[in-house]
Amino acid sequence: MSHVALITGTSSGIGLATAAVLAKTGFRVVATMRDLAKAGALRDRAARDGVALDVRSLDVESSESVASCVAGVLRDYGALEQTSEAELRRTMEVNFFGVWRMTQAVLPAMREARRGRIVTITSVGGLFGQPFNDAYCAAKFAVEGMMEALAPVAQRFGVQVSVIEPGPVNTEFVASVVRNSPAATATTRDAYSDLVAAYRANTAGVFATLGQTGDDIARFVLEAANAEKPHFRYATSEFVRGLAAQKYVDPTGDSLLAIFGARLG
To answer: Is 136 a catalytic residue?
Structure first.
């Protein structure tokens, strides 16, 4: 029996690559995105790789959309148990509450079946804060804490939880963040302008020299999905592993503060 993988955010970047890679290795992939009109790149990749994908609409910012999509997937591929949630703040919706919703929606069926995998893309930003990424890092820290707390409990029901922690990844996500970030608008205070410019310039250099591709990250998702005993945490590069090690070696946090402070010029 082939495994079923429900993947969010598959219109581009890591989500798209993960859907294609998992499908090519035998998973039955349900590839979801908010706007199905943006499925062209995903369908082109699937055609190029010779794989079949079940492409569905899912907006992680909508409780109704999550419940409807998961109900449909479980109806077509398994059993169903629904849960509810409270409305939560908009600024955390996509990066934290979307993950929370998806996990709440799929976990009951996995628990009843006493098998399953939950693999979540977090970020190096979930391990240490980075200048001008306050909200994003807060959300990713929250995801890390949520999954770390859930993992030992879920394991008792045969459900393995893993987090994938990329550093710089060269996908459309990066350009989208830059276009829509407050720092790119006239609302940025003059007092921060020079710091923002310096940080962006230095961070661009990091992406240029150390940036990974969506396919690079998808391979770690595949490893976590297929491993007999998957790790909880997968750092996707030596760069990330080095920074993570530094955090644990230096409990004061001073060394990481110096590293990221240097990017401010």
So the answer is: yes
